[in-house]
């Protein structure tokens, strides 16, 4: 089904049968040429953090070391996100192409796809595609091999340094940063780790040129983005849309006419209430109070029949379980937030407790070791501040 | 690369080597940043988040322990933002922690409690999570009690067990709210590969891991007039006890310790240093016997290198991990157990006491000694040879309980018969000490001359380096030892089980040609034992080691075989080293245990 | 036990004996044995020169690795809010009634273990479950009855066949 206002782009999902020639052609280009085009495109990481992809490749290429790795992060665990699964099912060769070009740029001989345990059913098909792709690489003369590494059910392994730990046979506990993966990643070697969608976008950029990509989007948010749309919507699914739309336009196209809030970016993202739809732009810059929101692409719509308390409770249960448990603010803070809103809801704790919990969430944001603990405050604060009465009554 | 990095901490300029952390930079200018998961012995974890500091211009706070300083960095360690975060971290930790401080063994000596007091953490704003947890206490080990309700998940124990000891009996298990420090399948510590070394105890900031204490049992024994309570004190106790009673590290308090033990009510105050000298005689002769059988008799049954057997943590380590290598262990009991066996036989007879009315107590720098004393083999006297083992920390507690002003005590001397020692017995407390003591005796037995080192100080085996090697060539031996002429005796000294593991791998695959290896389970040897006062660091261990070597240097007698009490013991009782009685009382055997 | 040792050594041969091989080996054991027994973890520790506590600690981090016996098929029901909004709780009730177990339990015949899990990445077609590796989406109580019945029939057929072979 086509949205009414927003243009459905389908660059990534466009069926293209010219992967092999394009890979050969791109691999024949100079490293600097490739990196410069990527930088010029303005592509930023589509996992949610939004680090400029070209710069990441360049930093890793420049890092000292003989051993380097390319890793495709397919540990898509953010509640409400399913775009990477769709990309890997429908256009896996584009992702592999992105990995191969990256390998050439940084000088990696080995790449991995870290596939979450929940997506094991994709493995056999993906392996077949990889085997076929290796033949393309051999033809192109690039000594690069891609392996699948299976996850085993841990949301936190989507955090890049936790993912390295997991691949090294450890508990998936995030590392201290610095050093960053571009200097010290998998096996302590310089590593590019990119989200599935990011790698697929590089393919479009190499195919259509940086300018085409840059023409899409606004300001610092260039290109298109694949959104996972779910919740109270008549048209749930995957949509590739131009960056920079207002949430109002989005809700007009995807809402059921009664949308009261949209959770942008999953459990670790922000909840935007109806009154802010018009002012909120989907992009990287700024925060909830500002005008634009970063996202890995999860868009959950809630209509007025839904209790935002239940939504927040569901997210907090998720964090209590999926925190790796190593750092104090995340391990204990998530438990306190969950028990706290339960106490308030039952009337055992005063509504002023919510202010103390907001303060705790902010402290977690300031002190937690990794993005998981830091981002709990996003959903917590945006739901509690906008739907305070639902937390109490 | 610049030679130094300049930054500002609390508006003070710091100039420090590149790679230094904010914590190190702050400490270098005497600014204290509170820490819990940080320990100078261990790799940086950065998980307690207590040491968070503010970088001017940055939104999020930085962990001082894990963040390297960069040029021009401006750090605030005492801003409103920082103080608030620290307090929240403490309150969060305490909400998961059973804060029954007045009932806690670590009351008054707990790092968490100290910080809570410093930051005025009062009745918290957070929900007490303890009732929601199924916390358990494991007190089945004779050495260590693990109380999960006191654990703050700093992982110091886990890192200690992995990095210092290479045992990893403890690991982090589960995740999220369920995350905990666990043995394999959460089995009791007594049923897993734990060596009872107690390094986890000395590195635990709270009451989650503590020694099993026998203070009340010892008071009870002393209160019973029908009982004659004998106490022995290990070499490393006298150079560390002062730390638990208000002195700086590195003070020798032997005289005050003896006086305090008498005041506490021990009937005989004796010295493990005496049996350390005895150990040298037995173990030294065992080494010579093995050398004779291997070099002269070419007996393939006899194993070299021989390793020392004084450290019960090391013994249990070998029993678990390398049971095939047990024949390399000297059969000589540890000084504690030699003492115990003699206390209820030789000593009882000398003082005219029925052994069944005797209670034998030891004060040890060690938690594994509690396990050792409870081993079924350790009943050579017909009774349990050592009834109760106290750590240095427990003794300090008893001294405080008794209201003794330790620092004002006059110096006192050990009782006779089993109270004299040589400098060789004293240095047992330091890594390399057993080797040095053994070489002083063995060389002289073989050649009739003193060991060829200036002032008898065998410096190559001293110091805190993890693995030390020394070689000593024997020339012109006495006729009886002719087969050793020209033989270079190769020795190795290791402390910490991580190092022991590396050396034993070499022994197993035959890639080393040592004759004699000294292994102590704890870093620094017994002076860094799991029963010693806290806190511990390389600096503290260094100070203790210096005290030990000072003590040795000041002794009139420096060689075990010249200890008059030992000489008399052989004349009156044992007759000869490795003789019949020795075998019965002073030597033991070992058991293979499951590796997993 | 001997079978386990062979299984572990085959997996170690395939994946290597470095620490890095730990997850693939544990996954391999679980695929074969349905869970990680203490004996299995002892064998892994031996093969990789780790302590058993390290193996246990790593295994318990991952929710798809389990250290208690499980049924032949594991049903994982997604509990993310979007699945809840589309009938996850009705589905759960149906499954509990149908299988006569609660979440976390295994059916008396050992055929199914029922678990809840975090986001399965099927949010646009919830409620969703995984049975072993296989996703099932847009479920209703009616559909789940059919699916469960299919697994039961297949299992009955298999045991009949093996009975025939044995007799």
Automatic annotation (TrEMBL), chain A:
Entry keyword set: 4Fe-4S, Iron, Iron-sulfur, Metal-binding
Span of domain NADH-ubiquinone oxidoreductase 51kDa subunit iron-sulphur binding: 309-354
UniProt xrefs under Pfam families: Complex1_51K, NADH_4Fe-4S
Coiled coil: none
Thylakoid in keyword set: no
InterPro entries: NADH-UbQ_OxRdtase_51kDa_CS, Nuo51_FMN-bd, Nuo51_FMN-bd_sf, Nuop51_4Fe4S-bd, Nuop51_4Fe4S-bd_sf
MF term (GO), any: NADH dehydrogenase (ubiquinone) activity
PROSITE patterns the record matches: COMPLEX1_51K_2
Keyword Iron-sulfur assigned: yes
Family: Belongs to the complex I 51 kDa subunit family.
This protein's name: [NiFe] hydrogenase diaphorase moiety large subunit
Lineage of the organism: Bacteria, Pseudomonadati, Bacteroidota, Bacteroidia, Marinilabiliales
From TrEMBL, chain B:
Signal peptide: none
Listed GO MF terms: 2 iron, 2 sulfur cluster binding; 4 iron, 4 sulfur cluster binding; ferredoxin hydrogenase activity; iron ion binding; NADH dehydrogenase (ubiquinone) activity
Cofactor: [4Fe-4S] cluster; [2Fe-2S] cluster
Residues annotated as domain 4Fe-4S ferredoxin-type: 142-172, 185-214
Domain 2Fe-2S ferredoxin-type: start-end pairs: 3-81
One example of a Gene Ontology biological process annotation: ATP synthesis coupled electron transport
Keywords carried by this UniProt record: 2Fe-2S, 4Fe-4S, Iron, Iron-sulfur, Membrane, Metal-binding, NAD, Repeat, Translocase
Subcellular location: Membrane
Gene Ontology cellular component terms for the protein in this record: membrane
PROSITE patterns: 2FE2S_FER_2 (PS51085), 4FE4S_FER_1 (PS00198), 4FE4S_FER_2 (PS51379), 4FE4S_HC3 (PS51839), COMPLEX1_75K_1 (PS00641)
Domain of life: Bacteria
Main localisation: membrane
PANTHER family with a match to the protein in the record: NITRATE, FORMATE, IRON DEHYDROGENASE
Similarity comment: family membership: Belongs to the complex I 75 kDa subunit family.
Descriptive protein name: NADH-quinone oxidoreductase subunit G
TrEMBL record, chain C:
Gene3D superfamilies assigned: Glutaredoxin, NADH-quinone oxidoreductase subunit E
Domain of life: Bacteria
UniProt binding sites for [2Fe-2S] cluster: 78, 83, 119, 123
The entry's keywords: 2Fe-2S, Iron, Iron-sulfur, Metal-binding
One Gene Ontology term of the molecular function aspect: 2 iron, 2 sulfur cluster binding
Pfam families, A to Z: 2Fe-2S_thioredx
The keyword Cell membrane is assigned to this record: no
Recorded family membership: Belongs to the complex I 24 kDa subunit family.
PANTHER family per the UniProt record, alphabetical: BIFURCATING [FEFE] HYDROGENASE GAMMA SUBUNIT, NADH-QUINONE OXIDOREDUCTASE, E SUBUNIT
Protein name listed in UniProt: [NiFe] hydrogenase diaphorase moiety large subunit
Native organism: Breznakibacter xylanolyticus
């Amino acid at each position: 089904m086509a949205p009414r206002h927003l243009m459905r782009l389908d660059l990534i999902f466009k069926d293209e049968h010219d992967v092999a020639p394009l890979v050969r052609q791109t691999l024949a280009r100079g490293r600097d040429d490739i990196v410069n085009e990527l930088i010029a495109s303005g592509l930023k990481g589509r996992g949610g953090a939004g680090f400029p992809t070209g710069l990441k490749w360049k930093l890793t290429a420049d890092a000292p070391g003989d051993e380097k790795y390319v890793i495709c992060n397919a540990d898509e665990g953010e509640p409400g996100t399913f775009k990477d699964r769709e990309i890997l099912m429908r256009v896996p060769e584009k992702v592999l192409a992105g990995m191969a070009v990256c390998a050439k740029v940084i000088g990696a001989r080995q790449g991995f796809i870290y596939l979450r345990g929940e997506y094991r059913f994709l493995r056999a098909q993906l392996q077949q595609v990889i085997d076929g792709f290796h033949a393309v690489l051999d033809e192109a003369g690039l000594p690069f091999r891609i392996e699948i590494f299976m996850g085993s059910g841990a949301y936190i392994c989507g955090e890049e340094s936790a993912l390295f730990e997991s691949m090294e046979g450890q508990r998936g506990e995030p590392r201290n940063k610095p050093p960053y993966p571009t200097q010290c990643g998998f096996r302590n070697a310089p590593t590019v780790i990119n989200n599935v969608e990011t790698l697929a976008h590089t393919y479009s950029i190499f195919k259509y040129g940086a300018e085409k990509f840059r023409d899409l989007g606004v300001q610092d948010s260039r290109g298109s983005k694949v959104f996972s749309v779910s919740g109270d919507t008549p048209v749930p699914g995957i949509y590739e849309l131009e960056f920079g739309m207002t949430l109002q336009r989005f809700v007009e196209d995807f809402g059921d006419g009664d949308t009261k809030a949209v959770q942008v970016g999953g459990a670790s993202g922000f909840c935007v209430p109806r009154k802010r739809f018009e002012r909120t732009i989907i992009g990287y810059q700024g925060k909830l109070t500002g005008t634009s929101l970063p996202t890995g692409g999860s868009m959950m719509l809630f209509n007025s029949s839904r209790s935002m308390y239940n939504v927040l409770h569901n997210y907090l249960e998720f964090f209590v379980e999926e925190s790796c448990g190593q750092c104090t603010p995340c391990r204990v803070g998530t438990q306190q937030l969950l028990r706290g809103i339960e106490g308030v809801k039952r009337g055992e704790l005063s509504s002023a407790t919510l202010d103390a919990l907001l303060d705790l969430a902010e402290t977690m944001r300031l002190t937690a070791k990794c993005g998981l603990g830091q981002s709990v405050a996003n959903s917590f604060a945006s739901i509690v501040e906008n739907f305070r009465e639902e937390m109490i009554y | 690369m610049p030679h130094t990095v300049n930054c500002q901490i609390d508006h003070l300029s710091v100039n420090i080597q590149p790679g230094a952390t904010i914590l190190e930079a702050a400490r270098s200018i005497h600014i204290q940043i509170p820490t819990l998961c940080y320990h100078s012995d261990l790799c940086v974890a950065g998980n307690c988040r207590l040491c968070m500091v503010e970088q001017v211009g940055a939104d999020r706070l930085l962990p001082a322990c894990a963040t390297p300083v960069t040029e021009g960095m401006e750090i605030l360690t005492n801003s409103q933002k920082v103080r608030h975060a620290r307090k929240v971290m403490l309150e969060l930790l305490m909400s998961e922690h059973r804060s029954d401080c007045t009932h806690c063994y670590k009351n008054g000596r707990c790092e968490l409690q100290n910080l809570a007091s410093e930051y005025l953490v009062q009745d918290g704003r957070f929900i007490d999570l303890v009732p929601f947890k199924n916390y358990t206490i494991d007190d089945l080990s004779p050495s260590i009690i693990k109380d999960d309700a006191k654990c703050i998940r700093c992982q110091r124990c886990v890192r200690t067990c992995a990095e210092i000891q290479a045992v990893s009996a403890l690991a982090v298990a589960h995740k999220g709210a369920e995350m905990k420090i666990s043995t394999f399948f959460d089995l009791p510590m007594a049923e897993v590969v734990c060596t009872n070394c107690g390094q986890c105890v000395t590195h635990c900031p709270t009451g989650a891991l503590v020694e099993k204490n026998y203070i009340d049992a010892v008071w009870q024994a002393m209160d019973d007039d029908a009982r004659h309570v004998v106490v022995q004190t290990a070499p490393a106790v006298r150079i560390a006890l002062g730390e638990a009673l208000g002195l700086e590290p590195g003070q020798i308090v032997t005289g005050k310790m003896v006086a305090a033990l008498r005041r506490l009510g021990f009937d005989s105050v004796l010295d493990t240093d005496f049996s350390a000298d005895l150990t040298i005689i037995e173990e030294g002769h065992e080494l010579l016997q093995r050398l004779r059988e291997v070099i002269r008799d070419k007996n393939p049954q006899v194993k070299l290198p021989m390793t020392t057997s004084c450290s019960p943590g090391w013994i249990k380590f070998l029993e678990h991990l390398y049971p095939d290598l047990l024949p390399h262990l000297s059969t000589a009991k540890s000084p504690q157990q030699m003492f115990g066996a003699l206390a209820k036989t030789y000593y009882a007879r000398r003082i005219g006491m029925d052994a069944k009315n005797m209670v034998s107590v030891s004060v040890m720098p060690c938690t594994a000694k509690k396990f050792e004393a409870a081993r079924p083999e350790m009943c050579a006297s017909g009774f349990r040879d050592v009834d109760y083992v106290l750590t240095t920390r427990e003794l300090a507690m008893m001294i405080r309980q008794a209201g003794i002003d330790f620092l004002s005590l006059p110096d006192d001397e050990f009782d006779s018969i089993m109270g004299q020692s040589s400098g060789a017995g004293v240095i047992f407390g330091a890594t390399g000490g057993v080797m040095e003591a053994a070489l002083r005796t063995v060389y002289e037995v073989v050649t009739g001359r003193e060991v060829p080192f200036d002032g008898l100080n065998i410096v190559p085996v001293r110091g805190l380096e993890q693995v030390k090697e020394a070689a000593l060539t024997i020339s012109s031996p006495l006729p009886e030892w002719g087969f050793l002429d020209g033989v270079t005796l190769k020795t190795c000294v290791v402390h910490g089980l991580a190092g022991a593991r590396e050396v034993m791998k070499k022994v197993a695959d035959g890639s080393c040609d040592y004759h004699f290896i000294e292994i102590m389970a704890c870093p620094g040897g017994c002076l860094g034992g799991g029963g010693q006062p806290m806190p511990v660091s390389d600096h503290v261990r260094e100070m203790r080691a210096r005290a030990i070597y000072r003590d040795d240097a000041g002794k009139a007698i420096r060689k075990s075989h010249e200890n008059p009490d030992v000489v008399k013991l052989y004349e009156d009782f044992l007759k000869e080293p490795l003789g019949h009685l020795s075998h019965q009382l002073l030597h033991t055997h070992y058991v293979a245990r499951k590796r997993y | 036990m001997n079978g386990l040792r062979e299984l572990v050594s085959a997996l170690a041969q395939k994946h290597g004996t470095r620490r890095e091989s730990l997850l693939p080996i544990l996954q391999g054991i679980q695929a074969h044995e349905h869970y990680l027994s203490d004996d299995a973890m002892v064998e892994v520790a031996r093969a990789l020169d780790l302590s058993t506590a390290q193996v246990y600690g790593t295994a318990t981090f991952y929710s798809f690795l389990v250290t208690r016996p499980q049924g032949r098929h594991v049903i994982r029901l997604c509990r993310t809010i979007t699945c809840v909004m589309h009938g996850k709780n009705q589905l759960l009730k149906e499954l509990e009634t149908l299988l006569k177990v609660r979440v976390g339990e295994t059916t008396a015949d050992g055929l199914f273990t029922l678990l809840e899990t975090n986001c399965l990445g099927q949010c646009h077609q919830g409620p969703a479950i995984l049975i072993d590796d296989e996703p099932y989406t847009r479920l209703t109580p009616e559909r789940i009855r059919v699916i469960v019945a299919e697994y039961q029939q297949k299992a009955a057929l298999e045991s009949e066949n093996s009975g025939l072979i044995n007799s």
